[in-house]
Amino acid sequence: MNLNDYYGRRLLVGRDDTSRDHFPALQVLPTIEVGPAMIRCLRCNHQTPKTVAALPRGEYYCPHCINLGRVSTLTKFYHVPEPNQFSPVKPVLTWQGTLSPFQQRAAEAVKEGMKRHCHQLLWAVTGAGKTEMMFAGIAAALERGERVAIASPRVDVCGELYPRLQAAFANCQVVLLHGHQPTPYRYAQLTICTTHQLLRFYRAFDNLIIDEVDAFPYAANPALLFATRQALKKDGGCLYLTATPGETLLREVRRHRLTVNYLPLRYHGELLPTIKLRLAINWRKQVKRQRISQGIIRQLRTSLLQGHRFLLFVPHVADLAPAEKALRKNFTAEKFTTVHATDPDRMTKVQQMRDGQYDFLITSTILERGVTFAGIDVYVLGADDEVFSSSALVQIAGRAGRSPQRPTGNVVFWIAGNCRNVRQAVAQIRLMNRKGRKLKSELSSLQ
Ligand SMILES: [Zn+2]
Following DSSP, what letter does each residue of 57-106 receive, concatenated? Predict the structure, then answer.
């Protein structure tokens, strides 16, 4: 048995298992709290009615976090308090890049907050380069011998972060943990994992960073906050990174439980492109008859005439084929195709778009984040459809204006009427741009 597997973790074993009892360092922790009508899981905090959670002979289990291994009254946790047995090798930070003055400012604020173990939010616009802004703070924490984790609700974000972090901290042990890739666990100073995996840790981290926190479904936010809290040491610091904080986080800010830093400018120093709203009432009906309004065609054509390629988002996969047919009638010479989440050629199509082989792509929400095409315009047909959350709409709008050669772009949402999510997305972008203008004038007065 490797004792360091238990450092800052809660590992599940059978209640009657005594094989490890001769290790005095191992603590035994309870797994389930049994109440009169409900049971509460001490790993995921979920409450379940006894009738649902019942096992034979008066035993209970938690159905909620079962994919991490079944927590039940037949089990117990072994745990060893985190001892921080690390000897950081210098230089801790091997990243050679540089930050712009406004990125530098945010990075300093983050570093200072991490040093004081604050609970903080970095509200950075899409395309701000937020990963690099964590580096200084992480490096200082690792030098102090702290255990640090970066968690994201999205597996693909973790997969993308891992090689970048391993390169930036080449002398440090980095481990990647998520459900789809069963690499064995090992004790490491820097962990990258899905937020779900945090439930396996207990008072482990001195600093925890949650990236793309808005990608977590809104209703599940309290579960995320719980997972975060119990994975952190009692006095641990937490940094939430997002371009679109949801209601739960904003409430924590209003209650002064979270401090907030803004990064309202993109890495090239410009504001976000603003969203223009246009009315399109019966677009789906028309598209099904292979027609599309002249206003929409004109707008799309304007992009192409100006030499800009674009993404056209539609709400549902079922909208893709009719939209493609309708557009083929109007765009006979142009090269374009459709793409969606389960499209087997998705990667190829995205690469071909990047290589300039397509004039535009018609896409479902799959390209909402993580994919960057230089200098494109962005259009959304049916932006008021409930499939688009306000954070998804901000992310979609943020696909435009990402290159220094063209830091702006056309962003047009076609809607059938007033809609809360669209309104919130427009308001969030306006707020960030107000702050961005202010920051720009502050920085220029310093020069
Ligand atoms: Zn549970």
Answer: GGEEB-STTGGG---BTTEEEEEB-------PPSPS--------HHHHHH
